[in-house]
Amino acid sequence: MRFEEKYSGNVFIGSTDNFEESTTVLYGMPMDWTVSFRPGSRFGPPRIREASLVHEEYSHYLRRELSEIAYYDAGDIPLAFGNPEKSLAQISDFVSRVLDAGKMPLGMGGEHLVTWPVVQEVYKRYPDLAIIHIDGHADLRTDYEGEPYSHSTPLRKISELIGGANVYQFGIRSMTKEEVEYTEEAGIHFFPFDVLEPLKSCLPELAGRPVYVTIDIDALDPAHAPGTGTPEPGGITTKELLASIHAIAKSDLTIVGADLVEVAPAYDPTEQTPITAAKLIREMLLGFTAK
């Protein structure tokens, strides 16, 4: 597949048609093969694109417009249905080519396991990589009911790959006792329940480092984003998550990749979840794309 041939027809607002001139590549990872509760996040990326039409291309938060950046929406990667290992390999191949072309990958899930192959590829290029993880769940299990390929395991795999001291977790409010013990053993920077203030306190120590940002939509309280596979009460507001993205965007971090995952549109007939996700993606595009 040549990059100028999109995987799917719909595109996010403001996308350029020229891959070569782009600095960021937006793409979908429509996989939900390992979810532990409700499937449906594979339908997230196309619905987020459709929902983007409700938004302006200008962000007054960042005083920037999508026309001021060059980003390319490559569509959704066609993944091997029901086959986690092959799907992860397909994601790896795609992201590797994006990175080899000198572009920043910005992915839309799909379940959270899709982050694992992306980080593997980014880490090959940036051995000093740090992870900012915003989520309602720790995702630090070694397996889920005996299955190591699960949406509850990606941050455990990532931590073991890059070292726990390079992982920063925010907003976590659902975890096992073993996961909490692992954060202490591995030296993970673990901030349960809240996001914005602890994130702000950590940004100075990450200044100048390559950072990958992964956001699970269920970091938001279900009142703000009911359309997700594993909703967890007690989460943050949309306003706080937007402010967190803006804090990262205005910091001295070097963002080398990012994703937003776990949008499952079927569980939100109001469509506020994909609409919210589309706004978050717009802010990530504008805030994380190199100036």
From TrEMBL:
GO terms for biological process: putrescine biosynthetic process from arginine, via agmatine; spermidine biosynthetic process. Pfam families: Arginase. It catalyses: agmatine + H2O = urea + putrescine. Its EC number is 3.5.3.11. Binds 2 manganese ions per subunit. GO terms for molecular function: agmatinase activity; metal ion binding. Mn(2+) binds at H112, D135, H137, D139, D216, D218. SUPFAM superfamilies: Arginase/deacetylase. Its cofactor is Mn(2+). Keywords: Hydrolase, Manganese, Metal-binding, Polyamine biosynthesis, Putrescine biosynthesis, Spermidine biosynthesis. Pathway: Amine and polyamine biosynthesis; putrescine biosynthesis via agmatine pathway; putrescine from agmatine: step 1/1. InterPro entries: Agmatinase-rel, Ureohydrolase, Ureohydrolase_dom_sf, Ureohydrolase_Mn_BS. NCBIfam families: agmatinase. Catalyzes the formation of putrescine from agmatine. This is Agmatinase. It comes from Baia soyae. The lineage of its organism: Bacteria, Bacillati, Bacillota, Bacilli, Bacillales.
